[in-house]
């Protein structure tokens, strides 16, 4: 059974507001949409760190905002920033001190910036434990972090840190039964609220939507504007923008980050082992299979 716009506006599962983008990831009765709503309801009151995975345009920030809205921090700030910005400038931590910090595109970071981000998160953990902050962290990525970790391009400890709870958003092509409800909601929230002609609706149903919900919303908006400007009483095929039948993307690693120098990789590994040994250099040297003098030389080089 499809979900009508009226049902959506009255549902406790949707993020109320004028922007349809806030509703789209949660619309529909497909197994994936139902599971996502249930996950959000279940974890929102308790989570401290969460990772949202999904292709571009699937609504990761909107899901993050819904988690925030249902959390005990709902009355505090929701702060969104790129992972690069946070790694280079930790000021967002203070802005989200009592609220939620949404960190976008963590999978695109180079290894040196991953080091910086990890330091920021360790500082955040220290502040939360000492009750100087109540920040909830939500990270997002369209890259497969497990694949990046397996190939050495994403830090394992960073992945563990941000993925205490994981939500995976389906691409639109994998939830075709939700398309009608999503289309109806977009139309109802897009001025001048014109109806779709059957031929236009059929064209949109047959498209694979490589840009996911964002592309669908932009398509409906552009078509509604063109139809209104022409004085048409409804949206027909000639009002639709050109839809490119591109190959649907999958969650894949983005452009490979720059190759790190071997010395940098070795030094970073030494520091991670030393941290795991709580600063005990003798134990760290034993785990690394090197002498203490070699360990000291490597540390002096840092």
Attribute tags:
about 300 residues, alpha/beta, Rossmann fold, Helicase, Ruva Protein, domain 3, Arc Repressor Mutant, subunit A, 3 domains, five-stranded parallel sheet, two-stranded parallel sheet, 14 helices, 7 strands, about 10% strand, disordered N terminus
Task: Quote the distance from N terminus to C terminus.
Answer: 61 Å
What gross morphology would you assign? elongated
Strand content: 5-15%
Mean pLDDT: 83
Low-confidence regions: 1-21, 247-259
Strand order of the largest sheet: 2-3-4-1-5
Written description of the protein model:
This protein is of the alpha/beta class and 302 residues long. The protein folds into three domains: 31-168, P-loop containing nucleotide triphosphate hydrolases (Rossmann fold, 3-Layer(aba) Sandwich), CATH 3.40.50.300; 178-239, Helicase, Ruva Protein, domain 3 (Orthogonal Bundle), CATH 1.10.8.60; 262-300, Orthogonal Bundle (Arc Repressor Mutant, subunit A), CATH 1.10.10. The chain has 14 helices and seven strands. Helix 12 (262-276) packs across helix 13 and helix 13 (281-288) packs across helix 14 (292-300). It starts with a helix and ends with a helix.
